[in-house]
Write a structure and sequence with these properties.
Length: 94
């Protein structure tokens, strides 16, 4: 599903009058979640899931064909854990 199709789905599910209103709602949601994660705050939506940030440790590797090695830096990455309600609904839709 691409963004345009998702906007149409949100419009019908959320009973928005125009696609612009639905797109504005999606943008507000994603912006709010992003701002919270930047501040290292968790966003929990009961029945849907939890957005968090976790520290991903740096990794070491070897460049193929050479003896050179490299190490990546530690970084913060977003993580989503699906809630029971979402898991159950997806399972029922099989």
């Amino acid at each position: 599903m691409n963004k345009a199709q998702f906007v149409e789905l949100v419009q019908s599910c959320g009973e928005y009058k125009t696609k612009a209103e639905a797109e504005k709602a999606i943008k507000a949601f994603t912006c709010a979640v992003t701002e919270a994660l930047v501040k290292k705050e968790d966003v929990s939506l009961v029945g849907f899931g939890t957005f968090t940030t976790v520290l991903q440790k740096g990794k070491t590797g070897k460049v193929p064909g050479t003896d050179k090695t490299y190490t990546t830096a530690d970084k913060m990455v977003p993580k989503f854990k699906a809630g029971k309600g979402l898991k159950d609904r997806v399972e029922a839709g099989k």
